Amino acid sequence: MPASAQTILVLGGGVGGVVAAAELRKRLGGRHRVVLVEREERHVFQPSLLWLMIGRRTAGQISRPVDRLRRRGIDVVRGEIEAVDPANRSVTVSGRELRGDAVVISLGADLAADSIEGLPAAGHNFYTLGGAESLFRAASQLRQGRVVVMTAAPAYKCPAAPYEAAMLIDDFFRRRGAAGAVRVEVYAAEPAPMGVAGQHVSAAVVGMLEAKGIAYHPGHQVTLVSAEERRLHFANGASADFDLLAYVPPHRAPRVVRESSLASELGWIAVDRNTMQTAVPGVWAIGDVTTIPLKLGKPLPKAGVFAHRQAETVARNLAHAIEGKDASASFDGQGECFIETGNRRAAFGSGDFYAEPVPVVAVRQPSILRHLAKVLFEQQWLRRWF
Fold first, then answer.
1. Residue 323 burial (10 A CB sphere; 0-12, 13-18, 19+)
2. Residue 171: enclosing H or E segment and its boundaries?
């Protein structure tokens, strides 16, 4: 007997939300509705912000209209999500209540630069489209001085990105003939790069920085930034001056999540690590908005590759459940990422983040072919989903 018509609400149009909505639409019959709720007009392919900030991409090249998903048969609702009611599987969007038979939450992480005094006015948040664009404009005008790439908190999404940013910025100035006049340094709140992946991965990234002469200062938690003096102040009593500041801001769970019954102690959503099911029946969460503890005492890193695979898992299981089939898909913690090192080269890390007692991750050395593979991945991803 055919399943009764169902409505699935997918909250958020980032990587996880787009993949979940598209996969659900593909797997479910036309009598079922798939509704994607997103406040932004355009989906931005986040990995390419690193190229945007050094002038190798434009905003139009790395973004696509969210409304284009309508061509797949996905109902797109544009608006601000004001409240989430998990128990009733409903959401309030710009004053309008939407109800679903199932809800997939993929609202990501909010970037909270304002939680550090002076930070927003002092530098450029290259995790946003506007920040990456303003960083490129500022870097294009700099002829000499000190560029600081800083992580403002120990945990953040895309763990490789700030280290990639430092190496790409260094390459940007080398290509402009300013290698001797402009120096790049990294100040990190965390004790080592990509720490969840293991000491050998951290050592490999530090080695990449050292090979380029990029000074690395771990364990520096910023507490105050003076825009007028162009100075950073850290919890350990140290300070550092800069002529150009590129930063990754602290992250926090979205307000509507923090205020919902799904929020953990730190505001994120706890899920079953294999199915992404929340504590509330009929509600799943994927991507950066979740927290998944690992055996070593740290959570699974927030990264697009995990959001993508979690979305596929949820879509497959949810579609099977609606059709009365067994839900057998499982997210297994496998992940990988490119690490751009400049000079049109990229390293590649991959492994099992669910391995115990610690993740098993390998890093392959930088090469032109791996850089080209990342370029191809960018093009294929945007073409496939939009």
1. middle
2. helix 161-175
Q: How far is CA 296 from CA 184, 274, 292, 385, in A?
A: 32, 18, 12, 35
Q: Could you tell me if 13 and 128 are in contact, meaning their C-beta atoms sit under 8 angstroms apart?
A: no
From the CB of residue 96, how many other CB atoms can be counted at a distance below 10 Å?
A: 10
Per-residue pLDDT tens for 235-260? 999 999 999 999 999 999 999 999 99
CA–CA gap between residue 380 and residue 253 (Å, rounded): 30
Domains, the chain, in order of start with CATH, read 7-109+253-322 (3.50.50.60), 111-251 (3.50.50.60)
CB 342 within 8 A of CB 170: yes
Q: Give the tens place of pLDDT for each residue, 159-213.
A: 999 999 999 999 999 999 998 899 999 999 999 999 999 999 999 999 999 999 9
**Tokens (6 digits) for 66:** 């969210």
Please give the helix or strand (H or E) that residue 31 lies within, else none.
none
